[in-house]
Specification:
This protein is α+β, with helices and mostly antiparallel strands. It has 2 domains: 63 residues, Winged helix-like DNA-binding domain superfamily/Winged helix DNA-binding domain (Arc Repressor Mutant, subunit A); 168 residues, 2-Layer Sandwich (Beta-Lactamase), CATH 3.30.450. It starts with a helix and ends with a helix. This is Helix-turn-helix domain-containing protein. It comes from Nocardia tengchongensis. Keywords: DNA-binding, Transcription, Transcription regulation.
Amino acid sequence: MNTRGTSVTNTLAIIEIVAECGVGITAKEIAQRLGLPPATAYRLLNSLVADEYLIRTADLRGFGLGARLRGLAAALNTPTVSRAARQRLAEFRASTRFAVNLIGFGASTVRVIDQDPDHPVPAERELTRCLHASAAGKLLLSVHSDWPALVPAPIRSTPNTRVTHAALAADIAAIRSTGHARAVDELLPGLTCFAYPIRSESGTPDAALCLAGATSRLDAMTTFDESARKCAAQLETLLF
């Protein structure tokens, strides 16, 4: 018997079921659906969680898709950045000394789709793994009414990272009020980022224009708020 093949097949079947049923499906339900012994299901689930293909829900009873699978989904749904959009980004970058990056949104993940050539994203892995620690990630969370399911157990990226749902709820309320997100020293020490929504025809943010720079220059960054909002609005018709 090819036990490796059986293990791989069962692992893929588990991922399919979690994707189909959504966040919260339990190990018992997965085992029953696949006809697996509970011990086998738990072993495969623990392996998928350890490798970041799945995440546990806040109550530790259920499962959802993890960062690595959400990143794959985002890659499959990344919008094409047109020549006109690239030109508009280049114009905005020329007007500021800060980093200007275009971030795409999946259902529950973010991904860099146009990186500032002069200011590469310094923590791309952390950006995709820690939605709660970046401005783009918080902007995405603000779209979801069930956003706690996407960050069941927030990890601390820096001493300033919000790691409680109460603190994140306050940030998300502010985003919904102001229309943009910010993260100050939360993803990396000394790094501040603002994220402005770029909406598709449905009216929901499908990408973000992100302005990033040293926290010591936070006041200077805020002077670009109006021009960043204008650029994000112009990119809507160029991207979607």
